[in-house]
Design brief:
Radius of gyration: 42 Å
Number of helices: 44
Helix content: 40-55%
Number of strands: 47
Largest sheet: 10 strands, mixed
Strand order of the largest sheet: 28-47-46-45-29-40-44-43-41-42
Distance between the termini: 76 Å
Strand content: 15-25%
């Protein structure tokens, strides 16, 4: 009844609104030759039902019949007996009920000859009556007829609309409550907060100047409310505004009302949609008022949920009262978060749109991150809250919330003395201030994750638009589009949840550990640890916090945190060490970090466990800071993120054009608004948000297949735009370990002390000694002892250089030292028969520190009973430390010569002391590092060979081929770096290399030619750079030179000419990477802990670490090869190209849809429901996914993929394809209008039942339009499947090629085949069954809803089908050739050469 009522009612409402003919031609007027068209025959016209008071009165041909024993009832159903109260199927909506029995006869169809559309009703009645053998029948009436009547219902009559009907009263109350409740709450809230602010202004005075420097505080005070200083504070370190709120009974009431009002929005929308299908019953049948009311409610619904989405983080506090911190129950934190915008260019339009966006965000307070956290109290009454996994504690003196930081001590000695642990009360107090030692990562369940995903503006737009489909009898298409939106959203939800669960697994950790509390060792949870605690370091366990070693020797595996490839030996802090503690600097050798695994824990005293002092817990740890960066990353905005806003604005402008065309060509009034809204909804695909995420997820999966793991998906796209790639040298470009190449001692080194006393000038031996057996004994002792190597499970642990040096010495490390007075005991090789086999004992050792670039050790030689001090380190550093008259004259020449040949050179110095002279061993143990490393004499060089990895050269060449500048940032010497750079092809073989080093005598940088240092000792680097186009020149700088250039603001001038940065400290590497980031998108790779800072700082960091879930950088790989870097760029470029391709495909989807809509407006037609569903669900969804399956190209191209949606290449592609599609579609209709069989069978809206919109496809115009557009929707994906330079060839995307051919085959079948079940499902080349039989076609066995046109079918002649198919294939081929030859082929190459784009130009 409902559907029948809609079908009966809608024509009366829509006939005056919809244009019956196209704007520029009269339908069915002239044949091809110009003669007038004859009047057509309406085939199989559906006659009105005949209603009778007795079933026997139905004419024989339409008389219903029932099986034996059943009776035909008034509702048209056969039953054994007819119950009372049945409603007659002849009843009409809006009319009095029929009380007497009235039966509907069977439906009939009749051919109407000489059909005139404007006289359709009269002709239909006459023809149908004649077929039934009755001349005239009365129209429908409710007078309980005694004979026969037509069952065609008159217009419903519900009475006049008074606007006080129940639906209107409900609307008045509901929308009145929306406004009224809001105003009441605002008035109440304003009064309450004004009173509180007045009280605070009178009673509270504070001064925070003593806690901050004056300049910073001055800038902060501008943002503070002087009248309510205790109501909000600006947290000084992170620019956080913190406001306190408390619950209020009235506010809670209004908030509950707000929730109910939000649900009411859905209820009223559902009510109006339901009423549409009830013939506007609640609006007394008034289409205009009902649809206008729906439009108004639709706007309210959109803005209501848009505001809810935009201000969702503030709404809860809006219904609370802002108050003082002392009264507060919640705090609202507002933290600014600037985005990193990575643009290829900065055009005026983009700048203007960004400016408008920023102004709008600032106006509505959307330029900050807003979060609400409960305000809690510690047991002592101190208020705190947690934000981004960190506890912020209130400081009454400064009236600021700050993360509490315990100052346990400034120096190593201060920390080393804290061995007594904490009392339970102290620990409880500290836990209240810093929180438990646990990083809690919230991962929502599926329901909350879906809700979070849909709380975005794009989805609000999409779901608001879907109400139009459900309302305007488009519900089938609405269901299909809803499924598409839900599918794309679920893809994003699954990808995001998977990533969050991986991070949760990585971040959350608890274990049992022994903690020293109240002077006793207690078994407790690692979550109970607080700064100042002392805990036992157990072997095999994961370190629960950042801590310093107090006792014992420890070997820690830091690969998951720092990327360090080998376990690192850690040493206890010294109580006599006054050095300022720096956990990432000199103190790192004594620091164990949270998340690292303890490979070995060795006691140094029998009754003393291996202990460590907790310095940082939770997010205060180094691991915690990394986890925070992953959980709360800085928003990265690519150029297409900026330009997609412009694209959407353009599409919305297209929607306004569609509104104008709908009014002009198609309809007017509210109908025009509905059709224009449909067009806008289809211009912007619901798949748009998922297109980018799917591409990133696919790329991450492919990276994982080659052992490259990613913890930050958006960084994959950044990898596609990398212009500058920075490399550590050792272990990255070169092999993991160095090869011992010998030593070059000074002559007569075993008697160095005597020679020095005699004033003999030292000289090097003629050449370095390769065989360790030939090395003088004093130097052998240095090789055997001057290191920090230990053993673990039979393997050496320590610095790879130290391990290689010790192994080459052939000495052995004793499992047990002979006395507690010794640090280690070492024995000569058992196979060494030349000397007496006696041990040496290590008395004292200071480990290697990057900041000092040296280490030192004191040993007792049991052969001579002498104490030797050896100092080993960088040859530049040792030269500075040594007595200057102990340095050979040719020191610089010899060291440079070794370095120039790619050797890794360390220098050795020596000092001999008498324990008796200094007060014995006890006195010696009090010596500081500086005391040990003074008055030392140079004794020789240790030389290692630095070999390239086998594949380094070819992969560096591949990166350079891909237009990526490669840079070396190494801690090794400059000459070694230059040698390796030349070996691997980083610098051109014919390039002149100038080395810049700081000259402390001249207080400037001196540039020398590395190949001819004597000839070109001090050259003008600027002159060389001016002439570099003719004479290629590369620069290399030492660490000192780098810092001098930075201090004098000259580094940026030379930055992109410097190929090798040598002798760089970890902090220097970070600064160097940051400088490169200013010039372009920068990647960094390294394999050691000294690179982790630079890896984190870079746009794209890839750590060469064995740990799969390394969080030191966005990417990590266990494949320690430059090939991993090449692979990352390959996949990044492919992912970026795929993402842009997905955007272009979906934007072109909207443009084809716009073209389709213009034609449907012009001809007053549409496509069938199933065609819409096929496009939106099967074609678009599957092809969008298939596009993302393109694999990366095998080689890096010399260009990077564009990220600009409004760039010339993207615009030329899209606009050219749109133009080609327009031409071919126009050609199809031009060809159609040349057909004689069509010209007198054109679609005429007056001749059909226009309420059945889904049947407005039952004509030639809609069929040709649908077929041509289907080819376009399918082929658009193939057009963008060309790999070009970043993805593999067209045919290698097997899924897309398969779907493309399959879909083309389907549509070709619909185009070419005679009527069949498959094509008839989509209303293609089909018709009413009786009409098909009339034209000698075999009708399909499946049900076909009767066609809604006079002709009764849309079967095209066989020869025209082939012409149309040929035209469509021409469209396919033309677009493919245009994209391949013009956009990606020779035309593009010519234009790119003639009009080059201004980009970063550097020598690769």
């Amino acid at each position: 009844m409902m559907l029948r009522a809609v079908s009966l009612l809608s024509p009366l409402l829509l006939v005056p609104l919809v244009s019956s003919t196209p704007a520029w031609n009269e339908v069915n007027m002239y044949q091809v030759d110009g003669s007038l068209c004859p009047l057509p025959t309406y085939n199989s016209y559906p006659c009105p039902v005949v209603c009778v008071d007795d079933i026997a009165k139905c004419p024989q041909q339409v008389r219903p019949s029932c099986p034996a024993g059943q009776t035909y009832c008034v509702d048209g159903v056969c039953r054994a007996s007819c119950p009372a109260g049945l409603t007659s199927s002849c009843s009409c909506p809006g009319q009095p009920a029929i009380t007497a029995p009235v039966y509907a006869c069977n439906a009939q169809f009749a051919d109407i000859p000489n059909f005139v559309a404007t006289n359709k009703s009269d002709q239909a009645m006459a023809t149908c009556g004649a077929n039934l053998g009755v001349s005239t029948l009365p129209d429908w009436n409710n007078a309980n007829p005694t004979g026969m009547m037509w069952g065609e219902c008159p217009a419903p009559d519900y009475g006049p609309l008074t606007f006080v009907e129940p639906i209107f009263l409900a609307l008045y109350v509901y929308y009145g409550s929306l406004v009224g409740f809001l105003l009441l709450w605002l008035a109440y809230k304003n009064i309450r907060e004004r009173v509180i602010k007045a009280q605070v202004a009178k009673t509270m005075q504070h001064n925070i100047e003593q806690y901050q420097d004056a300049e910073k505080q001055k800038s902060k005070e501008k943002n503070m409310d002087d009248d309510a200083s205790d109501l909000a504070s600006v947290e000084p370190e992170e620019d956080m505004v913190i406001k306190a709120y408390k619950r209020d009974f009235v506010g809670t009431f209004f908030f509950v009302c707000y929730i109910l009002q939000t649900l009411g929005q859905f209820c009223f929308m559902i009510t109006l949609v339901y009423d549409y299908y009830q013939n506007y019953l609640w609006f007394n049948g008034s289409w205009t008022i009902q649809s206008s009311t729906f439009m108004g409610m639709w706007y309210v619904f959109f803005f209501w949920f848009a505001i809810l989405t935009i201000f969702r983080s503030r709404i809860m506090n809006f219904y609370r009262i802002q108050c003082t911190y002392s009264e507060g129950q919640y705090v609202q934190i507002e933290k600014s978060e600037p985005a990193i915008i990575l643009l290829e260019d900065d055009d005026k339009i983009t700048r203007y749109v960004r400016w408008m966006e920023n102004q709008g965000k600032r106006l509505f307070g959307l330029d900050v991150i807003v979060a609400t956290s409960p305000l809690q109290k510690t047991r002592s009454g101190t208020k705190f809250f947690s934000f981004q996994c960190t506890r912020f504690v209130y400081h009454p003196e400064s009236q600021l919330f700050l993360p509490h930081d315990f100052n346990l001590g400034e120096t190593n000695s201060d920390l080393a003395r804290l061995q007594g642990g904490l009392s339970s009360d102290e620990a409880a107090e500290r836990e209240e201030l810093v929180g438990p030692n646990f990083i809690s990562v919230y991962v929502p369940n599926i329901a909350m994750a879906v809700l979070r995903e849909f709380a975005s503006f794009f989805y609000i737009y999409q779901f608001t638009a879907l109400w139009l489909f459900y309302y305007f009898a488009y519900w089938q298409v609405g269901v299909a589009d809803t499924a598409v939106i839900l599918l794309s959203a679920m893809v994003k939800v699954v990808v995001r949840l998977r990533s969050e669960r991986r991070i949760k697994k990585m971040a959350e950790f608890t274990d049992s550990c022994r903690i020293l509390r109240d002077g006793k060792w207690q078994e407790m949870s690692s979550a109970d640890l607080v700064p100042g605690d002392v805990f036992e370091v157990a072997e095999g366990k994961v370190t629960p916090c950042d801590a310093v070693v107090l006792s014992g020797n420890i070997v820690a595996d830091e690969s998951s945190l720092t990327g360090e490839p080998l376990p690192i030996r850690k040493f206890p802090l010294r109580q006599d060490d006054p050095t300022v503690y720096d956990r990432m600097g000199a103190g790192k050798i004594s620091t164990i970090f949270a998340g690292t695994t303890i490979s070995q824990s060795q006691r140094t005293e029998k009754d003393t466990p291996v202990t460590a002092l907790v310095t940082h817990t939770g997010t205060g740890t180094d691991k915690g800071e990394l986890v925070k960066k992953i959980l709360f990353p800085t928003r990265v905005s690519f150029v297409f993120d900026e330009q997609i806003r412009i694209v959407i604005l353009i599409l919305l402008c297209c929607g306004l054009i569609m509104l104008g065309l709908a009014i002009w060509l198609y309809t007017s009034g509210t109908s025009a608004w509905f059709y224009a809204m449909f067009a806008i909804c289809q211009l912007v695909s619901p798949l748009l948000p998922a297109a980018l995420v799917v591409g990133q997820s696919v790329a991450a999966g492919r990276l994982k297949d080659v052992n490259i793991f990613c913890v930050d998906l958006p960084r994959i796209l950044m990898a596609g735009k990398v212009q500058l790639f920075c490399f550590d040298k050792t272990g990255t470009l070169t092999r993991e370990g160095l090869e011992f190449f010998g030593v070059q001692p000074v002559q007569d080194v075993d008697n160095v002390v005597e020679n020095r006393n005699n004033g003999l000038k030292p000289e090097f031996t003629d050449k370095h000694i390769e065989q360790v057996d030939d090395v003088p004994r004093l130097t052998q002792l240095a090789l055997a002892s001057c290191h920090a190597v230990t053993t673990l499970n039979g393997q050496f642990i320590g610095n790879p250089v130290d391990i290689e040096m010790f192994r080459s010495s052939k000495w052995e490390l004793a499992d047990e030292k002979e006395s507690d007075d010794y640090v280690d005991t070492l024995w000569p090789s058992a196979s060494d028969t030349k000397a007496e086999r006696k041990p040496i004992h290590v008395l004292k050792r200071y480990e290697f520190v990057h900041a000092r670039m040296s280490m030192s050790v004191a040993i007792l030689d049991t052969v001579t009973n002498k104490v030797h001090i050896f100092v080993k380190g960088a040859y530049e550093k040792i030269k500075d430390l040594c007595e200057q008259d102990s340095i050979p004259d040719n020191y610089d020449q010899i060291t440079s010569n070794h370095a120039r040949h790619g050797c890794y050179v360390l220098a050795l110095a020596h000092r001999e002391i008498s324990l008796d002279a200094i007060g014995g061993l006890a006195a010696f143990r009090q010596w500081s590092r500086d005391q040990m490393e003074e008055q030392i004499n140079f004794i020789g060089l240790i030389v290692f060979k630095n070999q390239l990895k086998d594949d380094t050269t070819e992969n560096i060449a591949e990166l350079k081929r891909g237009d990526t500048r490669t840079i070396m940032i190494t801690g090794d010497t400059a000459l070694t770096g230059v040698y390796i750079a030349r070996q691997c092809g980083m610098t051109d073989a014919q390039s002149k290399v100038l080395l810049g080093d700081y000259d402390k005598n001249q207080h400037r940088i001196v540039w020398t030619d590395v190949d001819e240092p004597d000839t070109f000792q001090d050259v003008d680097v600027d002159q060389y750079l001016l002439n570099k186009e003719h004479t290629p020149v590369e620069l290399a700088v030492t660490g000192k030179a780098f810092h001098w250039l930075c201090d004098h603001d000259l580094i940026r001038k030379y930055l992109l000419d410097i190929r090798v940065f040598a002798r760089m400290t970890p902090s220097g590497k970070v600064h160097c990477v940051q400088l490169h980031m200013e010039r372009g998108i920068t990647a960094m790779t390294g394999d050691g802990g000294n690179d982790c800072g630079a890896l984190r700082a870079a746009h794209v960091g890839i750590a060469m670490s064995d740990a799969e879930a390394s969080i030191v950088s966005p990417f990590s790989t266990s494949v320690r090869s430059v090939k991993s870097c090449v692979e990352l760029l390959r996949q990044g470029r492919a992912a970026l190209a795929t993402s842009i391709t997905g955007y272009r495909y979906l934007i072109l989807y909207g443009q084809v849809m716009m073209m389709l809509k213009i034609y449907t407006f012009y001809f007053s037609v549409t496509m069938s429901q199933n065609v819409w569903i096929a496009i939106d669900v099967f074609i678009t969804v599957f092809l969008t996914y298939a596009l993302s399956q393109s694999k990366a190209a095998d080689r890096l191209a010399p260009v990077r993929p564009t990220a600009r949606l409004l760039g010339p290449q993207t615009l030329a592609s899209c606009m050219g394809l749109v133009a080609i599609n327009w031409v071919y579609l126009a050609g199809a209709f031009a060809m159609l209008y040349q057909q004689s069989w069509f010209r007198c069978n054109e679609f005429d809206a007056n001749a059909v039942d226009i309420s059945k919109w889904w049947l407005l496809a039952d004509n030639y115009e809609a069929e040709v339009l649908a077929l041509m557009c289907l080819y376009m929707f399918i082929n658009n994906a193939a057009v963008f499947n060309f790999g070009y330079k970043f993805r593999q060839s067209f045919y290698k995307n097997y899924l897309l090629v398969f779907l493309w051919l399959l879909y083309l085959a389907f549509v070709s079948y619909w185009t070419l085949a005679d009527p069949n079940s498959f094509a008839c499902t989509f209303r293609m080349n089909c018709g009413t069954k009786s009409v098909l039989q009339k034209y000698d076609y075999s009708p399909p066995s499946t049900y076909i809803e009767p066609y809604n046109t006079p002709l009764g079918h849309n079967v095209m002649p066989w020869n025209f089908r082939w012409k149309l198919w040929g035209l469509a294939m021409g469209n396919v081929c033309t677009t493919l050739l245009y994209e391949r030859l013009v956009i990606l082929g020779p035309v593009h190459a010519y234009l790119a050469k003639k009009f080059p784009v201004d980009r970063l130009k550097v020598k690769v």
